[in-house]
């Protein structure tokens, strides 16, 4: 509830979630009526999210139903044109071997409009640049969540946390609000990211 209050205080135009809304099970979210909390979020153009590995772990069909019940527009290998002004592309998680290639999702888009990509796992970032993505938002790494795991994520990912520019593409990998496994962080911080596009 405090995170929601903070997010609302930013008066966001749009809320974008790069996945892992659900951890491993839906039951805690259902018991605590978390979908009702999501309905408290306020933004001009709504809330968009990609489905990712933890939504699959919890059961993808039930996860999508929960997210829709929470008022979130789920983008699963699909594209939304927002306010006739910019595109939001949501990629299915790479754990789904049948997910569409990024080129397939974006080749027919009007690239004179900004293209924002939600791709949970920050891998193969050269594809982002090659497909003229304006902004990619990723998560997954939690910035390691704990030292020394954060050292390991530095070896696994080109950019495990923070901002990266590749060509004309801007990429931000967030450590996320939530946590996985243990109920704490060591050497990293929870965050939401405020991005202003000009």
Describe the structure.
By secondary structure, this protein is α/β, with parallel strands linked by helices. Helices cover 27% and strands 19% of the residues. It is built from eight helices and nine strands. The protein has helices at residues 2-9, 27-31, 34-38, 53-58, 60-69, 102-106, 125-130, 149-156; strands at residues 15-17, 47-50, 73-75, 78-82, 86-90, 115-118, 135-138, 162-166, 169-173. The strands form two sheets. Strands 4-5-6-7-9-8 form a six-stranded mixed beta sheet. A three-stranded parallel beta sheet has the order 1-2-3, covered by helices on one side. Strand 8 (162-166) and strand 9 (169-173) form a beta hairpin.
Structural class: alpha/beta
Uncertain ranges: none
Number of helices: 8
Question: What is the oligomeric state here?
Answer: single chain
User: Quick one: overall form?
Assistant: globular
Mean pLDDT: 89
Q: What series of H and E elements makes up the topology?
A: HEHHEHHEEEHEHEHEE
* Biggest β-sheet description: 6 strands, mixed
Percentage of residues in DSSP E strands = 15-25%
Q: How are the strands of the largest sheet arranged?
A: 4-5-6-7-9-8
If you compute it from the alpha carbons, what radius of gyration comes out, rounded to the nearest whole angstrom? 16 Å
- Assign a percent range to the helix content: 25-40%
- The tally of beta strands, per DSSP, is 9
Q: State the separation between the terminal residues, measured CA to CA.
A: 30 Å
